Known about the structure:
There is one protein chain. It is built from 6 helices and 9 strands, in the order H-H-H-H-H-E-E-E-E-E-E-H-E-E-E. By secondary structure, it is α+β, with helices and mostly antiparallel strands. The chain folds into 2 domains: 4-120, no CATH class; 133-242, Immunoglobulin-like (Sandwich), CATH 2.60.40. A hairpin with a 4-residue loop joins strand 2 and strand 3. The protein is globular.
Amino acid sequence: xxxxxxxxxxxxxxxxxxxxxxxxxxxxxxxxxxxxxxxxxxxxxxxxxxxxxxxxxxxxxxxxxxxxxxxxxxxxxxxxxxxxxxxxxxxxxxxxxxxxxxxxxxxxxxxxxxxxxxxxxxxxxxxxxxxxxxxxxxxxxxxxxxxxxxxxxxxxxxxxxxxxxxxxxxxxxxxxxxxxxxxxxxxxxxxxxxxxxxxxxxxxxxxxxxxxxxxxxxxxxxxxxxxxxxxxxxxxxxxxxxx
Length: 243
């Protein structure tokens, strides 16, 4: 495991990104786990990356590519690079390649979406009715770091945990909406275990999700709170703000 104090800010941010992408194994996974436990700044970075990546999570079903895809990639990439001289060089090389690949994929995705919007029905892109919003959820005395992204134009809500304590047996995490002007929390559903929550909200609920609204997560019995209000501890909460 490397000494995290010797890491540059860029390397720490890359480690947080790799954690959010689920790419870490072995010593680096243990290093990230220790930083998540002990370093608030690293937890915040991991939460930000989870928020950026959450809209892409789970959008496609897992499917093994055909063998010809691997062969084509190997042909395009060329021979494998020479072994790194040391562990630090190997880590740096892997992260540079990862970052270049992710940046290229993100750019291609953005270009593809722009093309779809520009060519759908032969019409130019339409104005988006409302900017996306994000809520970074945390709470005093809790290790949970949960990020929600809300897209009013598609009524799409994605909630992803960068770090969250496991719920006790026969319990789970329930999401709540609390109006900006106060009032009773509104249940938004139970979050699935170990993966982001995706929801397309009905129009009447979507209208209530505005800037300043608080989203919160509490621990509740399986199936949700029996009272319609939080009954267990609130492990994270945060207000929606425009990105």
